[in-house]
Amino acid sequence: MSGGELAELISRIGDRVLPVVVQSVGGEVLTLAYANREALELTARTGYAHYYSRSMGRVRMKGEVSGNTQRVVEIRGDCDFDSLLYLVEQKGPACHMGYRTCFFRNAPGAERENVDYSLAVLRDLEDVIERRRREGGENSYTRSLFMKGREEVYKKFGEESIEVLLAQGRERIIYEGADMLYHFLVLLNLNGVKLSEIMSELSRRRR
Fold first, then answer.
1. What pLDDT digit, counting tens, does each position of 65-76 carry?
2. Which residues contact 141 (CB under 8 A, 6 or more apart)?
3. 117-206, which class in CATH?
4. DSSP assignment of 20-61
5. Domain made up of 3-90: CATH architecture
6. Closest to 87 (Cα-Cα) out of 129, 10, 18, 27
7. pLDDT(109) > 60
8. Is the keyword Hydrolase assigned to this protein (predicted)?
9. pTM of this prediction?
10. What pLDDT, on a 0 to 100 scale, did the predictor assign at position 71?
11. Domain-wise residue ranges, the chain
12. pLDDT over 70 (residue 113)
């Protein structure tokens, strides 16, 4: 939504409360929230998602207590401008219950096809890797891997995989395994593959 369109929407919203679908920049639906004029103005001014809490009757910034903020990358309106879509960079879990998304439950009788959101740490790491690739400074190890190119990324993943195979003892396996998973996520990012796609493939194989 352009600045002019957003300003027009703010001027037209009146005393209405609009539903807001909140989606990560990676395409994952995170939650459904609500915004009135004040919330929309604060979101536009600060760049961070503010919502109208119907239960508390006030506007609040997402993550004002938990720290799990949402930086708004884009705001879109539907065809009638009576509902909104926020594309956000989520910090931490979006759900107050600690899940990556509020939509972690399956309808009774439905097949389970969604990601196991106990892997929220990996999803957060995936987001960090993407940000470091785009915005990391000179001292960013992640950015340096991407700058060195495909050969270096694949080499490091291979080295870390071997370290896991050679690790002696439970603690060492955990340590080296964490390194391997990090470098695997870097490799996935390099190839434009999301962790959710890997998890969906595993879910498909289970069926």
1. 888 899 999 998
2. none
3. mainly alpha
4. EEEEETTS-EEEEEEE-HHHHHHHHHHSB-EEEETTTTEEEE
5. Roll (3.10)
6. 27
7. no
8. yes
9. 0.55
10. 94
11. 3-90, 117-206
12. no
